[in-house]
Amino acid sequence: MARKDPESEGAVTNPWLALESGADAAKRTSEVRRAHERFLSAGVVPGSVRPVVADSWRRSARSVDPVTLPPLELADDELEEYRRAHPLAEVLPLFRELLGSIADDGHHLLAVCDADGQLLWVEGHRGVRLQAERMNFVAGARWDESHAGTNAPGVAIAVDHPVQIFATEHFSVPVQPWTCAAAPIHDPHTGLLLGAVDVTGGDHLASPYSLGLVQAAARAAEAHLATLPARASASAPATLTALGRDDVLLSMGPRRIRLGRRHSEIVVLLACHPEGLTSDQLITELYGDRMLNPVTLRAELSRLRHRLGPLLDSRPYRLRVPVRADFQVLAGHLATGAAEAALRAYRGPLLPTSDAPGIVWERRLLDDGLRDLLVTGRDPAALERWVRTPWGRDDLFAWQALLAALPPGSPSRARVACRVRDLDAEYGLPDA
Domain 7-231: which topology? Predict the structure, then answer.
């Protein structure tokens, strides 16, 4: 008979519940703390950790330091404007009605986040809110996994399922005194993920009651939203912002969807190929010649579909909505030779840190096209604007073109000539 792993004791039969009824919370806290320390030191997740938590730890470790706090990204008027326009503002009174007693009892907090994990509302007894502020659990802060590590709202929107996260199951050490339960909320008209509702407090929340409570609140919210007119139809045009940023921002009416790196690459590639891409074509555009199990891509597309709902089609994969992408606007200006308009549209390289072959190709086309347009146009004002940008300040060809375009008596010639000589020397080129 196989020997029983002592660290497997305390495992729960429902993977979304943190503790079985009657379990020793203190013992479980210590057990998971040891597992967390082992993961941080050796990268190994013991079998005592729930699979949903283990997977979240692995995702979190790619981008989060376990001692840092989530960033505050919206505040004051910008926060107020954003949440006033958000669809979940319609159901905030309902959450207060259903969960208000929890928010006022001096032991819990009620929180609502959007689909990017950005907290929109955090309510409860002032004393508890002050404690939560120490870990940046405040409206306007980002609590998705890639910014806050494992936590109930972040995991709920990542896996699209109600979940509890108990004490030391949190990836971030400052959050480990807390326990939380959260459930995702969808737009009943489109299937899009809108965000999540969460209750946060002490160890006593690790019970089936709290998980059932947030799940019931989420279902009530979706039922209420179903009685309201759709805020944006599935055929409404969308805007895609991808220049100069590593994460794509997809906007549809009042809704903004911020995508992770791989999902950003997929959406940009689909925008570049409105006719659609087969699975094999998409694998080539994303991974090139690297061997990849097709299941990996299907899993990424499944998670992306949770974010985009019916906006993502398959067979072939494509976007069902008309998209106005900033990089396509730039490409249009380049095609017509509109240098000034192209300069205004260029906010940086397309997904600058992406190494996906399809993205690298599109990025090079745009960057080379803009440089060629400026260099051949020999407009001193346009070239001067380009070399003052972070992307043009080391562009030797642009500096040389600017020097050639300046009239002999220009006061800028000496400065530009000096920069050309410096870049010549830096790149190891002989003096002209």
Answer: Beta-Lactamase (3.30.450)
